[in-house]
# Entry
Amino acid sequence: MIEANGLSKVYGARAVVDGVTFSVGKGEILGFLGPNGAGKTTTMRILTGFVPPTRGTARVAGFDVLRDPIEVKRRIGYLPEHPPLYREMLVRPYLNFVATIRGVPRRDIKSRVDRAIERCGLGQVAGRLIGLLSKGYQQRVGLAQAILHEPEVLILDEPTVGLDPSQIRDIRALIKGFAGDHTVILSTHILAEVTMTCTRVLIINEGRIAAQDSLEALAARGEKTRRIALRLARPTDAVEPRLRGLPGVLAVTRDPGGDGAWLVESDGARDVREEIAALAVGQGWGLLEMRPLTLSLEEIFIRIIRGEAA
Amino acid sequence: MRNTLAIAWREVRTYFTSPLAYVVIGVFLLISGYIFWASLVRFSQLCLSYGNNPYYMNLLNVNDMVIRPLFGTMGIFLLLMIPAVSMRVLAEERKSGTAELLFTCPLTTAQVVLGKFLGAAFLLLAMIGGTMTFPAIILSKANPDLKPTLVGYLGILLMGLAFLGIGVLISAMTENQIVAAVGAFGAFLMFMVINWAAEAVSSVTLSGLFNKLSLGLWEKAGLGLGGPSLGDLLNQISITEHSKDFYKGVLDTRHIVYYLSVIFMSLFLTQRVIESQKWR
# Structure
């Protein structure tokens, strides 16, 4: 649905985006992750045709953003970082206006606007002045204007900024509901957001793609070794040597803090959990708990941004 | 066309839901109304004093003495008021981020520029239309010549639109509204006073100028040294020179073509400016 090939944007001598290549399939939700100033917004602006790339090409639904900008824009719904609102307008007339210039046929405008108002929970404020709405409602109006023409591709630049937790949950549900038939790209620097909504993550740093993977793969790649936390009800002195004797186990340490807690490190290529369980049951150690320890997304993110081999 | 009108209509709504339209139209009508009243009173006093004298009575003409000066003052007021309207046209969209909406919608830059211009033109029309009550007042008590009055209105409207076009162009160049207003004001004044030097340079012909610039090649090529002078050119550029005939009631297509060219050129340049900004 979206193909970016070697996209670069140079302002003066500074490359804000530098050779970014990725593609997004239909129905995917891609999360753009990166620190502030990493080039997320610029990449999105290139995809929407607001800013032309210095080098490289981008295609949306088969149309080149430079050669067929109108065709591309017809298929995109876009919520910029600062919602593009006319503060002196009422919510409904504003949405009517956007529907018109987005090319919604005249007879469909009312139903589309009604639907967008309902989906974004704007029913109560439809007759109010945009400039007087709270930040959260303004953000929702911004989202409503992006989805009201049912675009094939939805590009959202930090859609949940400024919302309270329950609104964030609503918006995430809305975005998830939107995927499937539609393709969504959203940028954020909130990692939890990516975990909850996205199917795939693209980490951008200093204009370059630092990592690009599915969430599980990204989580797994943090480690060359697996670590397993173990808790036993009746540990004996034999625990340590017996565990160490299992093939693939590299180290076994007793957790000094917890009673009967152990930490087992094993080769990353080998899952030894089953063997450990069998051993513990066979020896009557009383297996209470066994869980794999993975790096949190935060840790992976910071490692990738710092350029450490993850 | 639908997109252009949608943008124009939104623009008009904004003017009339904010104090802008009311202040601009109100102030404009108040001051031109005062000038109209003053010249009307003066005219009726002259009529009272000299009404018995057939020689003077023939010189007293309501068109020449009330309506025509009104056009002149309205022209000056437009020069002062239009920057207040034009300054926000594109600068505000960029400042508030709504430009990002317009330029990521399936619209061409030309549609956006034309829509914005038409919206502002509607406000101008309302301003000038409001002053039509003045000739209507005269009409109720006297017999002014209607045709020159209408021609004068056409002239004022064209001049206002030309100012507006230039103002929109300058508004596209900056996101600072003060800069846009001062820039537009300066450009209008320059367009007004540019022919003040016309007298002084009336002896310099354009062909002579080209001859000097091309180190004599112009003359050698047999292109001649006669023709229009630099002063003629300055007179032709001046925006007020072209309005004088309209105020007299003379409809000359040259002037209409002049104003339409200024409007077209400034809107065309606005479109180019916006397009080029994307690449920076």
